[in-house]
Design goal:
Length: about 725
Amino acid sequence: MKKTVCMVLAMLAGFCFSADLFANEKDHQKKNYENEKFVWTDNYVSEGNHAALAPSTEEIVTTCLSKDGKPLRWVRKNDIYKYGKFTGTSTLETALYNMAVDEMINNFEKDGTLRTGLYWGGVWTRDVSYSSLLSLAYMCPDKVKNSLEVKIDRMGRIIQDTGTGGSWPCSSDRVVWALSAWNIYLATGDIEWLQKAYPVIIKSLECDDMVVFNPQTGLYRGESSFIDWREQSYPTWAQPADIYLSECLGTNAAYYGVLKVTADMAAALGFKKDVKKYTQKAEALKKAINDKFWVEEDGYYASYWYGRQNLIRTQHSETLGESFCVLFGIADEERAAKVISSMHVGEFGPPIFSPQIVSQGNYHNNGVWPYVTSFWGKAAAKAENETALLHALACNVRTAALYATNYENYSFNTGNPYTTLMNSPNMLWGLSGFMGLFHRTFFGFEFSQDGLALNPFVPTVLAGTRKLEAFPYRGMSLDITVKGSGHEIASCLIDGKEADAFIPADWTGKHTVEIVMKGEHKPSSINLVGYIGMPETPVVQETTGKLQWKAVEGAAKYEVLKDGQVAAETTACEWTATENGEYQVRAISAKGVHSFTSEPLRYYADASIQMLGVDKWLDEKLGEQVKLKVTVPVTGWYVIDWEYANGSGEVEQRNHCANRQLYVDGKNFTTMVFPQRGLDDWKNYGWSTPVKLYLKKGSHQLALRYLEKNININIDLDKAHVKSLRLTQLP
């Protein structure tokens, strides 16, 4: 291997490589990690005919070329050492850390905010929030503060700046802003910042309580956190209204974390009633997540519930959500261990979700994102899974070294960042994840209101001495040294005296910390799998109760679902419904992999559906109402939805989703959502979110009212046209 790497390096034009770079055998004999795809030794990473190494701690060279065929190389260009000086066990380890800090500084904008990546300017709510949570809250808190402040709208709410159907509430993960705000406070102790952030969080949560929260399930609606390219994670039939109805693991886990830190904020600010309120809400959500998402036979949480009238649980695992369940304490110790050892993991890292959608390209689907890998690595450390932690570290080291930058994503199959649908080098959450995983692993950073705890977790093969010198923390300068390996501390000296590995927040000046690890680890494992593709989603036609569909390639059988429950199993491509209900079909492969369910079809043999004309505009006047009188023939359960058009924006861009409050006989019942369906396309009619309600025989008044908490993130453009109402009598 040594000769191959040297030859390849020597062939690179533009660089003066020589075999001298590999002259010291001792530096590259120890293997840190190896699988069938790549090898990471002390000072180089190799994959096939490609290799990368660090000639110095301020330079990384690689045989990989850029997307346009140019040589790649990283050389330090910024003053990185004012953020502390890291010294690893090898030149490459140190250089990779230095590159992450260097790229962090590259993302500092002139206005004091953080750009998202080399190719993507501006601040994005979830990007900066998750980057902060990983490391930037303590690395550059002022820059994060400035970035968070530009993501507050003029009503004092957190901005949802990307997602489906006019974004909020179809996408609802803007609340991760609160996690970032709290972590800034933990790192800095800045109570004035907390006082500024708290009312923004409360106002946002109060809107979400009315518009996003589902009291029937105890869960929050909206698409999976950050997985906001709908074709990449949902069935193609799913409309924006369907995305809103979905209840997703990652989003709900994020909400749980937010509710917890909101209670902590309230305690820090002296708001006792809010402490009780948000603690209770957090505990109720934790129970709902465990009740609704946990799949015992798989050993992990399902990614989401989806559908229309009836929601169905997916078969997928979802790495960010699984990681949050471990990190935030949603999973107990036993479940946390199962999650980390059972989740699907590839040789290049954990996929965003698994199984994959065969017909879609590489991005969220069939993709690995280093920042998500970093969260997974942190979760692995908490679960004390050495195998998973080492794998996370190795995968992040591999892509950063070979491509001489921190990319946003790369292909699950190939590990190549150039074959994904969208990407950027020098990516904010990629580099913050790299630094954060190093800090969590090698030094065990755990910030609290009281101070900085150090709880390292160093895999056995990575044993050695690491230093972090002149690290700034709350006005202090810390020199931290960690020796050995393991997840338990054998000894700790602070300023030369035996002590707990904890730096109180009220200390000042310069301090030294010397930690020696015990060198012990528990047995551990991961579920390393190859590519797993889903069967295609059946396309079902219904004629007078007869369901028909074309054979799905690779399907061994089909399940017919009625009202969200399995009603039949068949190997044929047809089935006849004999009862009224909502029907779907899914294909199942010989290995038991499920397709998405088909688009829901309502079959009603009798006259159970009323169509009532409306032809009204929902405009931007607060208090405005659209009223409609309905008459039901018998007492029972009904489903209502509205046929509407919203031409204020494309499905995937802008922020003009219209939300209105449904009143039934003068009482506030629930929120109806009318997402964007196409820019300037006011003839494109579809169906709003449906709602199930119990009505007594006779006449009832329905009204759509526009309340302040319904106002979308755009604020100024918030309209839709309602054509008709569909009233469906349920069996």
